[in-house]
Queue: 3 jobs
Job 1
Amino acid sequence: MNVTEYLKVWADSYKHDLTADILPFWLANGLDRKHGGVYTCLDREGRLMDSTKSVWFQGRFGFVAAYAYNQVERNPEWLEASKSCIDFIEAHCADADGHMYFEVAADGTPLRKRRYVFSECFAAIAMSEYAIASGDKRYAEKALELFKRIQRFLATPGFLEPKYLPALQARGHSITMILINTASRIRAAIDDPVLNTQIDESLDAIRRYFIHPEFKALLEMVGPEGEFIDTCNGRLINPGHCIETAWFILEEARHRNWDKSLTDMALQILDWSWQWGWDEQYGGIINFRDCRNLPVQDYSQDMKFWWPQTEAIIATLYAYQATKDEKYLAMHKQISDWTYAHFPDREHGEWYGYLHRDGTVAQPAKGNIFKGPFHIPRMMIRSYSLCNDICNDIYHEK
């Protein structure tokens, strides 16, 4: 394989698809030019199906639009879209206690809160990325303050409703991994010791609690000290989440001049999770597995969702950058070939989100409360940059 040529082709593809398809689709169909922010419940052709707004996606699109501005092209329309989402968040998306809503109406009327702090995490990375794009340091300071609020929420007993009653004490992988990425994105805009401390604590928790070599797996839920919980939920492997965690760790390893212990941990997670996730019969990354190979409880367990595929694309590029081992480029080609053969909608633009195991479309909507302009454009932006970075590495090694 001519590595440079391969990566340049993909870099051009990522940039083209982002700028000519994905972002235009959402700017034309999703951006709310009356109330601000973004709608995500769009049908196959981009028509609005539901005006309920996901607070997650106000932050997610606020981040993506500014991230594209910073990494790909200084398009003022993208910067304006980012600011629109952030303004909507600040005006409408937090309750009096500072905890953000999960869903609001088109005009920002509160509809629903949940026990999570993911809305806050996405809002924080939107503010930090906008600070970099706009040069307005105030938004980096807002992001840092919001991050410290997240930490207070998590540390205050009883503030966030627990997932289970006291009889089942558990730790969750999701919040552990997302705090790594949230802190690292804010750190790009503003320096504060609390960010590195949180990253270190999350990395230590993944190593100590969630990695279970006896199953060659990273588990989604464990006991307070990492104990294996032998239930359907305790045995759950979410390959997409694990692969996403792997590249979050590789990104941090790169920040630390390719720290060997972090690189090794991330590659182990990626290799294990690929083995659990890749569907040898039909291709693609499957939703869920059971670490004992027992039947999985979730009804969507054998479906192919859009986001695990995008996380695998990023992770394999990071793994190749870290190792120069062409097995990771082969994995990148494997997941890319399958993903691009099944998810993009060549007729109406953007990507389908939900496929059956065999790759046929389960439902054609382009968005809902959980799918919208985040994983796909983030993959294209991050992968575009990675391809160019690796090519530059190769050039300077000659």
Job 2
Amino acid sequence: MEKILVSACLLGQSVRYDGGHQLLLNQQLIRWQQQGRVVAVCPEVAGGLSVPRAPAEISQLDHRVYDNTGIDVTDAFNQGAQSALALCQRHKIRYALLKESSPSCGSQLIYDGHFQGEKIVGQGLTAALLRQNGITVYSEQSLNELIVQVEALDQDN
């Protein structure tokens, strides 16, 4: 059975920078959880950051991650990305469902690094590392594509 890495915040875990979550209510995702297919991760927490924590964005000047107080938190983000990759390798995971716009998990869009709420095309550190290692990354906006992919695999097996 194909396991899927999923951002913990999408599963309702209160791990976001503001102490909240982004629960994604989807019947197929619930079914996957019940089947034991879901492996939850919050790369930022896995990297040692607290909940709550200052919001962070990737600087377009030096491609490092800074929180809104100016502290460089790139090392924690990289450590979290490595933890997510290790989970994928341990569980032979080929697909990840990650939270869009996050400096860790954004797969198509990230905030522009100026803390003004503007998004740009880009990807978070975890999404990029997973892709570099052959893992296909989806966001909550492309969940239906992931569902189709996993259902096709299930039919082949």
Job 3
Amino acid sequence: MKKYLISACLVGENVRYDAKNCLQHKLKQLLDTQQAVVICPEVSGGLSTPRQPAEIVGGDGYQVLRGQAKVKDANGDDVSAEFILGAEKTLKLAQYHQVTHIILKANSPSCGSQMIYDGSFSGHKISGKGVTAALLEQHGFSVLTEDEFLKQLAHE
């Protein structure tokens, strides 16, 4: 049986840095039918809602996990520890529930699995993984963006 882990913002929870969400109704249906668990790694790591936007500076999530890059917010504060803690809690949740599919918010410094913002707060994206996506992939999980998952769903 399929079991999903989904970014909380994608099922309508107002947990983004701007206290908004990115509701995707098809993903919310998975939660409503108890096929999914949800988490916001940033909130789970101790960050508030709302909060300053954050970006990875000097690499991507893999480098943050190795201590070679930092996650900084728009004020320049280092929030790497909170991002790592949130990633660890997300991994534990995925393992505990034995999830088979992970759908995380595209472009996020936590959840991005293809592209992330470049750390300049200019809106420019680069190829890379967020901290949570990187940690999950290091532990054998495949991470999809909401768009990738919805495309797959349309072809099933």
